[in-house]
Structure to design on (682 residues):
């Protein structure tokens, strides 16, 4: 079953008549209860949003911190270097087998060779082999390319 | 904002502006909606690029021109005869745009760090590069098993926007793809926030300001919940925000054509962004169909009983109602479903299902619950607020013409059920999978429940019942749908006094019409229904 609209009981849709019968705030104990409920909802929602937004400000502050900026700057430098190295060491349209023990490196090389080389599997279908080894050419790695 | 990003906003926003204007008229959502419509057109352009041939840019231009010509033609034929919606004053409109947009400036400063999320690299950037290469490259790469890790079945909206950036500025700055995804995310949150702010459109200044502040807080909460993934090129917050927009417009705001169209656009954006977005959009669209074309058991029983005597006359409206409900779901879901069909025909399979992981369902379910529940602390609190709000303010909520909060909860719980099932029957090793995705797959239900809290806050703040315009008749005898669009095109829709659109099963056969509906007069109501159906 799907919920009905209006929240009011069935057969009692929000009409001007209903609105007139349901003035708010109501007098007496029900009015006080309604006021307490209003306060409870307002306080709960305010606390929840405050906690959430506080966390958000912390995240943004961390993202903008020198540590984070340095780390991402180094990452981007490395990516750009590998991207350029692929384009300088491989001919355009070359079929290449990307091998590396680290899945992350394999995926990284596949991504960065898109639109230039054609990653191939299995090895026998490729003209070239490509991997990343420890080095200093691209921050902490070096691209290694050789023809099969 | 860099010059390149500004140009991209124009590239996406300009073709989307006229359709957005036609959809929402003078609304604060307009400015956030235009780039989203442009991005959706770019995604559809990718479908043509992949399925037919040519390049993204070519199809984007063709679709932009066709869409705008269609909108102008529609405006020429229909728009002239329809009444202009009143909409908010320019001051409130500007205030809403500035506050809601401004709230997202601080979290967006994270873009300056030039972060590049793992999925942004391995999925969205890779897809953008493929799309930028044109039909042959895209087709070859989609069939290349070396790219299987890249979730090639993911819908193309985020990557299409990135590819447009590359088409305009070349491949020198790959981070532009991340920038444009973050910008679209902010736009989607802006649409949801601006729509939320319209709840208080008819209230006094204090309540209106409160509504705008709540809307801004929901937008900021979106960035907080998504953390780094909001600005590092991942699309999880983008689809979540678009789905939230669909919920707010289609299942929360009073029923109107404007809200319905806006909900459909948001659902299209969500469905074209990610697989989870498509699933959620389908759930939302089904519920919207049942909200706008409600089931009426009391109507169907006599119809069934009489069907022996007059089968043709009684069957027809029922069939038509179901056909309309189906159209409410299928038409907006078409772009997303078309992508699904396209990748299926190409033989691209997702990597989430198929192989058996070897882990028992019990183990996977336990691990999933252990991983997901810490992200859902909001659920018991939102539930408590729902109970308190339901007990004390259900009349106020109904009086404002707002949808039953149950709709939003049904979407959230359905999504969580689908999510749990996906993790349980999925192929990946469960602990690794959860570690890398649980924080992002739970963004949507959290965001939706924060929005629900915001809505209850607005209703609770409405101490003097200013929002109770849901069933009020305007001077022309039409219903002002929750105070929105009074006297406008939307108010001319076949809303009954409960804020529901007539199901169309024929007069006299169903629920007793409320007093206010009787006041409208049968002829006016029939005219309105005819106008709506046309």
């Amino acid at each position: 079953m799907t919920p009905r609209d209006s929240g009011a009981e069935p057969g009692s849709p929000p009409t001007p008549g209903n609105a007139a019968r349901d003035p708010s705030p109501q007098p007496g104990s029900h009015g006080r209860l309604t006021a307490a409920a209003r306060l409870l909802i307002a306080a709960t929602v305010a606390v929840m949003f405050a906690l959430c937004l506080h966390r958000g400000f912390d995240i943004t502050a961390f993202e903008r911190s020198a540590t984070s900026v340095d780390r991402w700057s180094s990452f981007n430098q490395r990516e750009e270097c590998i991207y350029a190295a692929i384009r300088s060491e491989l001919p355009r349209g070359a079929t290449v087998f990307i091998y590396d023990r680290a899945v992350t490196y394999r995926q990284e090389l596949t991504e960065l060779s898109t639109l230039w080389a054609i990653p191939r599997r299995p090895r026998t279908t490729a003209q070239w082999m490509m991997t990343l080894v420890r080095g200093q050419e691209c921050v902490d790695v070096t691209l290694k390319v050789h023809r099969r | 904002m860099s010059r390149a990003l500004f140009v991209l906003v124009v590239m996406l926003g300009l073709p989307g502006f006229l359709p957005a204007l036609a959809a929402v008229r003078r609304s604060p959502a307009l400015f956030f909606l235009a780039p989203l419509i442009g991005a959706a057109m770019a995604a559809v352009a990718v479908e043509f690029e992949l399925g037919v041939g040519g390049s993204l840019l070519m199809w984007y231009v063709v679709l932009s021109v066709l869409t705008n010509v269609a909108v102008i033609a529609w405006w020429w034929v229909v728009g002239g005869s329809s009444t202009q919606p009143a909409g908010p004053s320019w001051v409130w409109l500007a205030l809403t745009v500035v506050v809601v947009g401004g709230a997202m400036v601080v979290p967006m400063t994270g873009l300056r760090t030039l972060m590049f999320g793992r999925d942004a690299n391995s999925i969205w950037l890779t897809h953008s590069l493929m799309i930028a290469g044109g039909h042959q490259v895209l087709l070859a790469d989609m069939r290349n098993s070396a790219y299987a890790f890249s979730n090639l079945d993911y819908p193309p909206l985020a990557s299409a926007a990135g590819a447009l950036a590359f088409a305009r500025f070349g491949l020198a700055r790959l981070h532009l793809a991340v920038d444009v995804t973050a910008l679209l995310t902010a736009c989607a949150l802006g649409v949801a926030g601006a729509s939320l702010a319209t709840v208080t459109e008819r209230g006094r200044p204090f309540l209106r300001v409160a509504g705008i502040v709540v809307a801004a807080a929901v937008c900021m909460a979106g960035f907080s919940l998504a953390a780094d993934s909001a600005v590092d090129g991942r699309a999880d917050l983008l689809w979540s925000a678009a789905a939230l927009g669909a919920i707010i417009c289609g299942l929360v705001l009073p029923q109107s054509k404007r809200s319905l169209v806006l909900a459909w656009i948001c659902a299209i954006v969500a469905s074209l962004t990610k697989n989870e977005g498509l699933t959620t959009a389908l759930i939302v669209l089904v519920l919207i169909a049942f909200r706008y074309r409600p089931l009426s058991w009391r109507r169907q029983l006599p119809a069934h009983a009489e069907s022996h005597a007059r089968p043709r006359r009684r069957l027809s409206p029922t069939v038509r109602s179901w056909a309309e409900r189906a159209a409410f779901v299928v038409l907006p879901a078409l772009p997303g479903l078309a992508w699904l069909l396209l990748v299926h025909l190409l033989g691209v399979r997702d990597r989430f299902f198929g192989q058996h992981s070897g882990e028992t369902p019990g183990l996977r379910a336990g691990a999933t619950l252990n991983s997901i529940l810490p992200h859902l602390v909001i659920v018991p609190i939102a539930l408590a607020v729902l109970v308190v709000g339901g007990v004390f303010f259900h009349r106020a909520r109904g009086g404002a013409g707002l949808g039953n909060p149950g709709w939003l909860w049904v979407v959230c719980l359905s999504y969580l059920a689908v999510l749990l099932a996906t993790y349980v029957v999925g192929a990946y090793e469960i602990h690794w999978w959860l570690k890398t995705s649980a924080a992002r797959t739970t963004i949507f239900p959290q965001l939706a429940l924060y929005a629900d809290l915001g809505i209850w806050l607005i209703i609770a703040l409405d101490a003097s019942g200013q929002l109770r315009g849901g069933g009020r008749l305007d001077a022309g005898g039409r219903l002002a749908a929750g105070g929105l669009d009074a006297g406008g095109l939307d108010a001319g829709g076949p809303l009954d006094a409960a804020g529901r659109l007539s199901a169309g099963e024929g007069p006299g056969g169903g629920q007793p019409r409320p007093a206010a509906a009787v006041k409208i007069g049968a002829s006016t109501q029939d005219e309105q229904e005819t106008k709506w159906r046309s």
Remarks:
- Chain A touches chain B through 61 residues (CB under 8 Å).
- The longest helix of chain A spans residues 28-63.
- Residues 28-61 of chain A form one domain.
